[in-house]
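Researcher: I'd like a structural prediction for the single chain below. Treat it as a standalone chain; there are no partners to consider.
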Amino acid sequence: MIGDLVIAGCSRRKTPETGLLPALERYAGGIAPQLRARFADHPYARSRIRFLSAAYGLVGADDLLASYDQRLDSNRVEGLHPIVNTQLRRDFAAAGVPRRVLLILEPDYLVLLTDLLALPERPVLHWIPDPRGWPQAAAVLDEWRWP
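Model: Treating it as a single chain, here is the predicted structure.
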């Protein structure tokens, strides 16, 4: 097991730019603005941030995203679940299974990550169900000594 990982839910509010933007810049709501402010100049920390997107599944903070408007409903969860599972396994095969994972997302998004619980080297999960729960997230990140 290595390092830590942050997974946040995407936000309904997005930067209106029509071109491609890194996910951390594309999302304008939820916890994204605080993550962007805290980690703008920290490439390693940014590499350990993921978003759960209703359109794309699991994306890295610096993955380029086009503008989209996709809501997460039960049908979309069902279709995305195997995609997110594959993305997580690919991510963990490349970078290792994280020691700890901070989840900042609503319950609907949590369903997409149930496969984390089945990993033999299961990471410690810390869940904040409020997508705007920055004070709680900052406290966890401070405890982890993230920049």
